[in-house]
What we know:
The chain has 3 helices and 7 strands, in the order E-H-E-H-E-E-H-E-E-E. It is α/β, with parallel strands linked by helices. The chain has a single domain (about 1-145), classed as Rossmann fold, CATH 3.40.50. The protein has a 7-stranded mixed β-sheet with strand order 1-7-6-2-5-4-3. Helix 1 (about 10-20) crosses helix 2 (about 40-50). The longest helix is centred in the N-terminal third of the chain and has 12 residues, at about 10-20. The two termini are about 15 Å apart.
Amino acid sequence: MIKESGSANETVAFASEFAAELKKGDIVRLHGEIGVGKTVFVRGVAEHFGCAEDVCSPTFAIMNIYGPSQTEDALPIYHFDLYRFENEEEIYDAGLDEFLGGDGISLVEWPELIKNYPAERVFDVTIEKDSAMGESYRRIIIDKR
């Protein structure tokens, strides 16, 4: 699936629509350069589950947990930023693997360090800029594994 976005608000709206198909244990791997809008996409997923106001980049915290809200279909959202890790072993030493594929939905920025993801359903979301289309333009590509 490919979606074009002309603004952060459009990216949030698209991610919220996409989140409707997510279920317990799903992992969403977020790919794209720094500042492309990975956390904006997470905000859209969190919006679907009623906890978008809490979303911020976990670059220094490494993992943020959002929600769940009071709605019946709400699940906890685990938002990871693996940018600061040097290898997969550090991720396991930090205990982050315990949250992947668990009782909520995991969204992982900089997911390349982990070789095997423990989930039945893994989505790869790639966000790309195209300056020829404008500063706010993003191409969002979603592949289900």
